[in-house]
Structure formats: structure tokens, C-alpha cells
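Why this split exists: single-chain examples teach little about how molecules sit against one another. For that reason, every record in the complexes split bundles all components of an assembly together and asks for one structure covering all of them. Below is a record exactly as it appears in the raw files.
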Amino acid sequence: MADSPTFESPVVRGYDTADSGDLLLTDASATIKWLIRASPDGSVADRLGASFGSSSAAASGATVLGSRPGEWIVLGTAAEVAGAVEGLEGLDSSDFVSCLDWTHGRALFRVTGNETTRMLEKVCSLDWSDPMTPDGAVASASVAKVTCDVARSDVDGTPSYLVFCDRSFGQYLFDALIDAGDEFGLVVGPARP
Amino acid sequence: MTMSRLGPQPTEVIDRSTTPRFRWNGKRFSGFEGDTIASALAAAGEHVFSRSMKYHRPRGILTADYWDPNLLVQVGDDPNVRAGHRLLEAGMNVQAQNVWPSLRHDIKAANGLVSRFLTAGFYYKTFMRPQKLWPAYERVLATFAPGGKVDPDTPHRYHDKRYTHPDVVVAGAGPAGIEAAVAAAAAGARVLLVEHEHAVGGHLRYSSQEPDRAALSELRAALDASGVEVLTDSTVTGRYEDNWLGIVQRSHPIAVERLIKARAKVLVVAPGLIERPYVFSGNDRPGVITSGAARRLINLWGVKPGERAVVFTANSDGDEAAADLDRVGVEVAAVIDGRDGRRISAAQGSSKALEAVLSGGTRTEADLLVVAAGWTAPTSLLNMSGDRPVYDPAVARFFPSDPPGNVLATGGLAGDGSLDELRAHGTTTGKLAAQRAAAVAHRYQARTARALPVTGDEPAWAADLRVPLRRNHHPELYRSDTHGMIDFSEDVGSKDLVAAAREGYDSVELAKRYTTATMGSAQGKLETVNTVAAIAEARGETIAQVGTTVWRPPYAPLTLGALAGRVFEPVRVSSIHPWHEANGVRTILAGQWIRPDHYGDPAAEVRNVRANVGLIDVTPLGKLDLRGPDIPNLLNLLYTNKWSKLPVGKVRYGMMCAEDGVVLDDGVTGRLGDDHYLMTTTSSGAGGVWEWVENWLQTERPHWRVHVTPVTTAYSSINVAGPKSRELVSRVAEGVDLSSEAFKYMEVRTATVAGVAGCFMWRIGFTGELSFELHVPAGHGMHVWEALMEAGADLGVGPFGLEGQRIMRLEKGHFIVGQDTDGLTLGPSTGLSPLIKLDKDDFAGMPELAWAADRKLPMIVAIQPDDPNVVPEEAAQIVRGDTNEILGRITSSRMSPTLGRSICLGQVEPELAAGGTKVTVLLVSGERISATVMDHHAHFDPDGERLRG
């Protein structure tokens, strides 16, 4: 019998890693991710607190991303996400709500550094300027020709982005981001949720 | 024309301490860092750089910049390199193009002897008849094709791509452009300044005047402090809808070229002016150069362009050229002032001993004839914005007319004036651009969900209160009293255009296409106005009456590499892919998926599944998570069969048809809970079916409460197939009774597999064997696969790939949508008419299928060649006897390892669909074979005893 199951990342190639760097790419695919669907202006929307295109922090500590009208991605530790999702389906009987564990379906990467904008400009056509994509902004976009959800989530004032894609594209997209960041000195950080 | 290197010049851009060595036509040369290829060669005394396209006349420097049509050379593998622009690099191997046997002695120069027969339209008139000789003509003409050589083995180099969204893009970094950029940045705009040349400054760079040099220093300092992003050696190649700009960045540390797609809120067009040649006999001889070329050679690269010069000038640039020549020791033998009505009539003699002939017949010997006859306003980006520039005969050039509000012109394009006036105009233009960009930004932000909220109303659109630049009078100097060259790239002379007009091609657009004037490497920058002038003269009209051609993108020619940009080719892999790679897989690309095709011997894989047990990674199988109370309604609408009474834990097969009744997809859907289903689709149809479902839900039945989420790769899907599959699965699964009584065919369970909770287990399969299809949370897919492999070692477990699966499904007679069906295959043609329930209220395709129900349609049937060793090609035609009348085709065909014979599926006309019918299959080889239609689709286990286990 094989070993007891641990989460297998879609990024399977080995890389030289560093704990920090001016432009740091980390694999955060193991982060717990749930997809919530509900009315865009109902009770669930009110509780989640993130309108389409923006994000919020749940009381449990989970991050809530308004990824589409009536659609949210909730991410964090298992406890944080459970706290944010618990009770949503029964919150309002008139609001049709569904909650789906999406952890295994989406690869998730974080890229952090002052050069992230210039790096992302190489693979995505969105306007990354502060007014158009401020901290907390959430968007759907083609990144290196892969449909992705992208959320700006700055770290201590440094620009940082979360990039989600279909798990099966994970290895490809990770390599594409490394390639895009190469000219800016991108380093790969150790995988972490 | 005797050129040589001068002593250091105060404005030179060369570093005399670095001397890169290179080759020119096999001979060794050296230059200085900062030289262009052409300036280095000129400094070394070279005066012929190319041969003209048609007549192979020797050509020398004309403009000494990017646009110089005479300076196209081959550098290594790169053809058509602009030697007037490309900077010298050590080790370059530079060669003249399209000459034989050498640049000096080019045998094709014999064309000049018959030049009077090679006028415009020569090809069209000469090679039209007899038509059958065209291939021979083509072979001969190909040897005269201009341009360099491309080695097909040249490696593809890295071309990069970038997107950007600046507030203001300024095209052109002359004094007005720099001022506009700095002013816009000072007003808070994000500015991108794009300069065609290697450095900013425009004409100030090659001015020896002290005030100009001081102004350039001041401008550079302001620019450095402004925060403007500056791209040099870059060109705005096109302006498209809503200021979508293409920019090619030619110098980049990591890429040969970078294509930038910029969405500018406001575009400032400041390209300056381009000096145009003057048309007279011999104007294409080496030694005849523009005043700008003379000043660039002297002041940028310290090259003395000749020893004895005649200067024909009609403006201050020509005057300054004469002064520069005099300053560096060139004997200025004569200055002919065009403002006084004097004209140069001809340049005669050899390239080393020119003779300038004035209109009155006066002759002056020289080795250099410098011409300053006026400028072309490169209005391309304005044309692309929808503007129609207007010709001003008093100034002898075109001016902007009415560009859209988000496109502003400044600098020489907008008018004349002192340097201070031009700079002031640039400053006010930059401020205006920033104001208008702020209004556009407000609009963009207000309509973008993710953007910062805006406050207040959109700022008012700032009025254009700029003081127009004045216009200085300039004589209309296009053609002298002799004929000469107009398009140096295409070898089109003024005579050709006059002849074209005489033949009826007297509209500028027609003449352009007939003669190819303006269609060469300079893209009309040097030729357009002279072309229009020649036609106007031929028609006896003014330039304004004739009008001009419409300049379209690109502003400057692009490489195909730049257009292709960076190539993204996303690929998808399953979680189990590393195992496949480690175990000798041969992959196949299916859509974007890299899938296991087989592991060396697909037939052996089939035999193992039939005898023991096999595993296949079917992760790409489309999977949609459905939630909500209206799912039965949705399934009834999507599928042709009924879904209202599917119990929890059951699975049902369904066929999906489009509204025209054509088979769209098929798959099984299982009910996991009261309001929770999992739908599977074909692998190739996963994306399309999701869109199809969402389309129905969002546009046709928005009141239905169903949420659909694609979860194709949220689960690793593993099919465990074979008579020992139950035994194998039982060793790793917990919480589920796998007995045939408790877990029947076409049922679904939730189970823990190899310690992984939340797995879905289906009793279905595509191979015809007892099968368990496991859908495992993808983050544990590899773990479960390896657990199965380990647990089944004593059972003979082995992997099988797509090829093995395709063989087994064919043995079982399962059709594949898209392989055995096509874009015309209606539902009943599949043989699944019992699944088409016309007594339902409604479903997609129902009217068409009701119509089709009573009609005889082509049918999918199983076919076996009478010779069991012959495997017809897929798509081989089924024909009537010895004729070529097509009655169907083979859609799938394989040698069956199980049956030891060839087996097929095919589509046939209805009269051939009955079991036992003999058909004729026409092979690709032309051979016809006999085959028999079978009673049912399954070649193997038609009663399904094995799969029910």
C-alpha cells in the first residue's frame, strides 16, 4: 500500500527555491478553496461582503473573492474556510445557494514583488495600475492563454497577486510565470498554503 | 564620392575607444561602437551598398537612417536589415543582397539595357500569355526576386510580448514630443514615449548649432526627471480602434523584438518630418544624398561624406548642411538655392566623379550632391485614426485635418516655428493630453468592477485651446525638368507614373498598385508625395485635387517574428501524468491534453484487460457538478431520454443533440444526492457542453435553480477494467459493498479509496469489461493510482492507454461522438432511437428529431471485412460495386487482439444498414474489398455479460 495521502500539487517539477526575493513565486495550490454560488444581492452576498471584482476578509480569517456576479471563492486554512462557509446554505431559504470544495480543482500561485506588474504585463492584457487594479481587486483574465482568476492581495504594502487556474494547467502556468518573471529576477519560493 | 572618418565631433554618438570588427562581402572592416553598419562602411570609404531591385543600378547612401531604401543588407541569417539604422556589432557578417556574382559586378545590371521595356505593368502585360508558360516564367522571375535569403534551418529566436495601459503614448521623441511627454507626466499622467531612433532628440541630435545642443541637454534632463517610460529604437506601428496601439521594441535585453500592445487613453503623434528626395535625372546615383544624411554622417558618426560638394537647398536644413560640410573641410563647390527658382536638373558621371547639371545647363564637378527639397509629413498614425490630412501648397506638405479627440498632433507634423515655439506647442499638447486622459480614465474606472470607485462626474473633455503653429512657406519642389527615380525601393521612376496615368491608372490608389510605387521598404515615407505630385502633373491637376493614398498599418515594416510574438501553447496534464512518464508512456496530444496513448504494446494492454485487470487515466473526461432542485428539468431538456425518475445512487446514459437534431455529445450522469448530480461528457466536448448548459440556464431558463460547476480536473478519474477489477478495487476501497447484487451496473457510490475520502465510484466502463470508474480528489490522484498498482500486482494489473481503450470500445461497438458521428449525424443514425423520447414535453432538438423519426437516415453500423487481415483506413469510402458512388465510410477501424480479426464501425446509407448486407470498401490504395454489415454494433460480448460482471 502506498503512503497515506497528502495533497499532491499540480506543480511536480523540481526548482531551486529561496525563502525570499524581490520577485517571488510560490505554489499555494494546497490552500483550501471553496466556490460559493448565490444571488449577487442576497443574504449570502451580504454576509460574504465582497462584491464582484473585490475581496473581503471573513470574520473567520478566510479571504473572500468576488470572482463573478453571484460567485465567490473563499480561501484560507480549513478552519477559516469552514467558518466562512458554515451556514451559508441555510441562511435564506429564498436564496438558492451552493457551496463546493474546489481545493482540488484549482491550482493557486502567489507572485509578490514590486515588479509583479511588469511581469504580469507579459502574460496578461489587464490594466494592472493601482486605480484599475487596487489591492483587493479580483478579475477573470487570460494569463499566458489560460483562463484564470486573479486577485491582488498585497503583502505588507508590496504588490502581490493570487493566480488561480484549472489544476490541469497548473504546471504549464507555473512555468509560464517563471519565464515571464525571469528578466525581473524571479525566484521560486517553497510551496505553502 | 570619397568618404572618410573625421576627427571627433562635439555631437558624435560613437565611442572611438571601442572598435568592433565585422565583415562586408567577405572583407574585414572595423568601425566604432555607436556606428551604424552604414556609417562604419562609409567611414571606410565604401560608397555602394546595394543594387536596385529591377535595374540593378548601384545604390549608395540616400538618407542614412531607418528609411534609407538603398541600405538593405543581409546580416548573417537576417535578410533586409537596415544598415542605416542597425548598430554595428563585433563579428557581424554583412553582405549585399540579390547581387551576382558581386556587388561591384552584378550581371543583372544588364536589365538596365532593356529598361525601356521594363516599365510599369511589364509583368502583367508580358507574362499573361500563353497561360501554360506561367510556371516557367515564374521560375525565371523568382531568380530576380529582391531581398535577402532566409535559411529554413535558422532557429526561431525569442520574440516577446507585453501589454500596457498608459494614460498617454507619445509617438516621437523630438523636442515637441519630449516636451509633450514631460508635460503630461507633470500633470499626473502615466506616459510612454516611443522613439524610432536609438536616442531621443529628433533633429537636435545631428545639429551642430550650439543652441540646439543646449536645448537637447535640457530636454534630456527634463525627461530623465519626469518619470516617463522611454522606449528607443521602437516604433508605434499602428493605431486601431479606441487607441489600441501596436508598438515594436527592437532593442531589448532578453528578446530580439518585443511587440507591445498598448491601450492609450490619448495618443500624441509627434513623428517630426521626413526629408524627401527630389526627382531629377540621376537622382539615384551614389553621391546624391539628402541634407539630413549629410548632417547625420558628419555630426552623429564623424563621417566626411565627400570631398567636393554641390548643395541644392530650398530650406534652412539645406543651409545648415552646407555650413556643416564647409566646417568639416568639404569643398562646397556650389550652393544652388531652390528658393530663388533655381533647379538641379541632372546628376551625371560616375559615383566618384559626379557632375551636377543645373536647369540652365551649367555643370559643376563634385563627388557629392546634397539635396534639401522639402519634407513629407508622416501622417500615418493620423490616417489610421480616421483623419484625412489636407495638403497645403504654400508649405508643400500635408497637415492634420480633424483627428479624433484622443489623438493629438504636435511638432513638425502640426506646423513650423522656432525651436521654442515647437517646444511650447509640445508642452501645451502634453497638458491637454493629460487632461483628456484623466477623463478617459474616469470613464474606464467607473465601468470596471474591480477598479477603485470614482468620485464625482466624469471630468469635462478639455477644449483644444492650443495656439496653432505657424506654417513657413516652402517651394513645391517635386520633379525638376528631367525624369528621375521616385521609389528607390521598387525602382519606380516618374516616367513609370506618367505612363501609368496615360494608360488610365490615373487615380493615386490605382497607380500605386499598378506601379508598386510607395509599396517598398520605406512604406511611402520618402515616395508618397512625389508619387502624388507625378500623377497630379500627368493629370494636369494639383496635389490637393489628386489626394493621397491612405496610410494603413504598419507605420514601418515588421518582422513576422514580431507579429507572431511570444507563442503560448498551454497544455494540460492529469495528476497521474508523472507516473505515466516514469513508466514508458507514449503520449498523444488530444486537444490541449497530453494523454497516455499506450505503454509500448496496446494489443498486449487489451489482452491484459480482457484476462486480468487494467487501469486507464481518464481524467480528461468532462465532469460537471450539478446542484439544485431543477436538475431533472435541465437533464430532460439536454438529453433525448427521460430523467425525472433517476433514483439517488443510479447512473444513466444520455445522448445530447443540438437544436438541429445532430448528435452533440454523450455521457453518463449519476445522481449523488437529492439535488446533487455529476454529469460526464466526452473529453473533447467538456468545454462545449459546459457552455451549452450555461447557455440554456442563463438565456433560456434563467428561472431554473441549478448551479453548474466544471470539475473535470478537480477529480482524477481512473477506470479499473477487467474480470479482476472487483477484486482489485475491494482491496483499496472502504465503506462500499462491491458485490454484484449490492452495487449493480450503472450505479454510483461514494467511497473511501486508499484512505482518500470523498471518491465517487461508478459501475460503468467503455471497454465492455467489468469496470469501476473512480473519481478521486485530484490532489490524491497519484496516491490512489499507485495504491491500485501496488494492490493489484498479484492480479496482473497493468496500465492501458487511449489506444487500448479505443480498440476495446470498438470491439464492444461503442461509438465516439466526433469520430463515428459528424456534423450531420442525427440522433437516430446512432442506432439509439429507443433513447429518443418524443413523448417528452420538450428537449433540445426535439422538433428535428420528430421530423427525422419517420425518415430513412444514414446509420452507424458494425462492419467486418471479409478478409480478417485487412484493416481498412478510417475514412475509407464505402462505394457501390465497381463505381465511385459513395454509400458511406469507415469511421473507426482496428485489428482486434481479442477476436484476431479486423473490425470496424461505419456510416452507411439506410439500404445497406441491415445485418448481413455486403458492402464494398474502397481503400486508399485503390483496392476494393468486400465487407459485411453486422447485426449489432458489438463485435464482442453483444449481450453484455462481461460488463455486468
